[in-house]
Specification:
The complex is a heterodimer. Chain A is α/β, with parallel strands linked by helices. Chain A has 14 helices and 15 strands. The chains are: A alpha/beta, B mainly alpha.
Chain lengths: 403, 295
């Protein structure tokens, strides 16, 4: 009986082996915040985007089989790297994608480098991922803190906001965003009067807002995200900060945050994004599909969701060209070699340091009277061309880039 | 203008007032918890979810029926209180004789379910709710700008807290209630319907949470996880004040708000830990809490 079982097991292994030889199998894992403050900007919406990218690819490439798994990192770096390790060792996941929360993303980026898998970051923002902490297995897709600072920060300094006070979320992302924005402010002739670092997930900002008010800075820079940004802006309105002549810079604001604030509170806010659902017909059509896939008619996809779609599309093209997904470094090299082209972000490139390059847009939140239908949030103020939108290759101190 | 520890006195007064305002929420929430624990012996972990339900009820009332902030302040707590009474009748009442742990596990599970359902339907980013027109704006106190809404929060919270304390500690109804927790059989013998009284008490505790939720809706982000973040702090407040002590819950609620507010000035990074540090110290020195009686 024992011998029979052994033979049967061997047969199964062999069968699986030959089946794999005929067909390339790729496994993609969406690692995101599924249940907390970033679940709307990534989370289940990113899974929907991944499904759409896979379906579109599978329609043209029958010889590659793509599987999808997802996991919840709960905004804890230790849980994130534990899932990444398990996916690499046990579940044989080839690509990890999304991962909002820079703390988690930096941890996962280390894991994929040791396991030689691939990591496409759409959700996290810290520019360190393509700076000092870059590696050959990580590609940073949608946006980063340098690009946000360069977009929103520069625009505000140029229009007279030359003294700043920062409210910063006290973890990797907030620190990176604060550092990159301070650099932009100072480079353009502005000065930083002070800053205060608050814990992630703070409920009440009134104390910090009073400090910001007392600093007399012209601009209060919000180097935080999600619920923290919403609470800051909501309470700043209550404390009459904007009426008092100071302006708010939401350095990372998503359309879902604008929705949560309501246009009455959010109007006039200037922000930078790389993708907006209502920008053109292609995006609108994609949004309709996404809403069906997500099962949420009233929700609008964020740039992170679009980035997951775009990232997987380019990844699968590279895998198809290599006919294998096994070697993470090789796939990353192929992705950098091939120009990118997809319906949502258009034509672009992936740079040597892992930075994906495309246009960015400076938006302003509409007044309630200007908004004609649900989700009609922004008007375009400026387009920042791809060549200027991201940090120059040489300034990042990425070890992959020979100086 | 003089300075205290390098901070201008004006800024310090402002921060003290802000601390008091935040303390109002802690006091309101810990009061509900203390009432429920003191009268029912249930550690109500659903409290955060019920606070969130209050805020959501205010949003839904406005969105679907056009009922504004002021009526919602009364309607939402009643609606959420009724759901609380249903929970008490169908589930909690079977647990009074068992260890505290069972009540804690049941209510914790309920909280996860309620938050999960809310997240499924409304997402995690949050829902818009604005300050009612009559309370918009604010006044300049010289040392700080005080939004009218915050002033209202302090007044309302203090009134509710002291009213509740008075009813429970100083009236006949409160006396019956306290007697019923001590010795239900005897109180029943006097012809008082004890189970109904307990149900109403739980409903009242839950309504307090929902009331705090409606009060929070205009100034805090209305999201499914809004209660989960707050409830841990509020539990620490209740533990510091002494489990089940109503006056303790009120005083520590306001007091810790002030201490947290000051931490936000001197060492902002520690502002969400300071309450737990105080809790640890209090538990070492006075295990029953500042106002608790030794069991």
């Amino acid at each position: 009986m024992k011998r029979f079982l052994g033979t049967a097991a061997l047969a199964v292994v062999l069968a699986a082996g030959t089946a794999q030889a005929q067909q390339v199998t790729v496994k993609i894992g969406v690692l995101s915040d599924m249940s907390s403050l970033y679940a709307d900007i990534g989370g289940p919406g990113s899974v929907a985007s991944a499904k759409m990218a896979i379906a579109d690819f599978a329609a043209k490439n029958k010889d590659i089989k793509v599987e999808l798994v997802s996991g919840d990192h709960q905004n804890k770096p230790d849980i994130g790297s534990q899932i990444a390790n398990q996916w690499a060792d046990v579940d044989k996941v080839d690509l990890i994608i999304d991962t909002p929360n820079s703390g988690v993303a930096l941890a996962v980026s280390q894991v994929v480098a040791t396991k030689n898998k691939l990591f496409i970051v759409s959700g996290a923002a810290a520019s360190d991922l393509t700076g000092p902490k870059c590696n050959a297995n990580t590609i940073h897709w949608t946006y980063d803190t340098w690009m946000l600072a360069n977009g929103t920060g520069k625009a505000l300094v140029k229009t007279g906001g030359d003294s700043w006070f920062f409210l910063t979320a006290d973890y990797a992302f907030g620190h990176a965003l604060e550092r990159d924005t301070m650099a932009v402010v100072e480079k353009n002739g502005g000065k930083v009067l002070g800053k205060v670092r608050h814990p992630l997930n703070t409920n009440d900002f009134s104390s910090f807002l009073l400090q910001a008010q007392a600093s007399k800075a012209k601009v209060i820079g919000l180097a935080n995200a999600g619920g923290d940004t919403i609470n800051s802006i909501k309470q700043a309105a209550e404390f009459g900060i904007v009426k008092g002549g100071q302006s708010l810079a939401g350095l990372l604001v998503f359309s879902s945050d604008v929705n949560a604030l309501g246009l009455q509170t959010a109007q006039g806010l200037v922000l930078t994004e790389t993708w907006y659902w209502d920008a053109n017909d292609i995006n609108r059509a994609w949004t309709k599909r996404w809403q069906t896939e997500r099962g949420a008619a009233g929700k609008f996809p964020t740039m992170i969701h679009a980035g997951v779609y775009s990232g997987i599309t380019h990844y699968l093209k590279a895998v198809a060209a290599l006919k294998s997904a096994a070697d993470g470094k090789a796939v990353a090299a192929k992705m950098k070699e091939m120009p990118t082209d997809d319906p949502l972000f258009g034509k672009g490139t992936v740079r040597a340091d892992g930075r994906k390059i495309h246009d960015a847009y400076l938006f302003e939140v509409k007044k309630p009277a200007e908004s004609k239908y649900p989700g009609d949030f922004y008007k375009l103020r400026a387009t920042i061309p791809a060549a200027e939108a991201f940090r120059p290759l040489k300034e990042g101190n990425c070890p992959l880039v020979g100086s | 203008m003089f300075e205290i520890f390098g901070i201008p006195s004006q800024a310090l007064f402002g921060q003290l007032l802000i601390g008091l305002i935040n303390g109002s929420f802690y006091a309101l929430l810990s009061l509900g918890l203390a009432v429920i624990f003191g009268m029912l012996n249930i550690i109500n972990f659903t409290h955060g979810a019920q606070y969130m339900m209050g805020a959501f009820a205010a949003y839904l009332l406005l969105q679907h029926t056009g009922i504004g902030y002021w009526p919602a302040l009364i309607v939402a707590p009643i609606l959420v209180g009724i759901t609380g009474m249903i929970v008490e009748r169908t589930m909690l009442q079977w647990l009074y004789k068992l260890d505290h742990l069972y009540g804690l596990l049941l209510t914790f599970g309920l909280a996860l379910i309620i938050e999960g359902v809310a997240r499924n339907y409304y997402g995690s980013a949050g829902l818009p709710y604005t300050v009612p027109e009559s309370l918009q704006g604010g006044r300049n106190l010289g040392f700080m700008f005080l939004p009218n809404y915050r002033a209202w929060v302090v007044v309302a919270s203090l009134t509710i807290c002291l009213g509740t304390w008075f009813v429970i500690e100083r009236t006949r109804l409160g006396a019956n209630l306290r007697a019923a927790t001590e010795n239900p059989t005897l109180v029943r013998a006097f012809g008082i319907n004890v189970p109904r009284m307990i149900t109403l008490t739980y409903g009242f505790g839950v309504a307090l949470a929902a009331f705090a939720g409606v009060m929070a809706a205009p100034i805090y982000n209305v999201s499914p996880q809004m209660g989960a973040e707050l409830i841990i702090v509020v539990f620490a407040v209740v533990v510091i004040g002494g489990m089940g002590s109503i006056l303790g819950a009120i005083i520590t609620g306001f007091g810790l708000g002030v201490i947290e507010g000051l931490t936000k000035v001197f060492f902002p990074e520690a502002s969400n830990t300071v309450i737990f540090v105080i809790m640890a110290i209090v538990l070492l020195v006075r295990p029953a809490g500042l106002f608790g009686r030794r069991a």
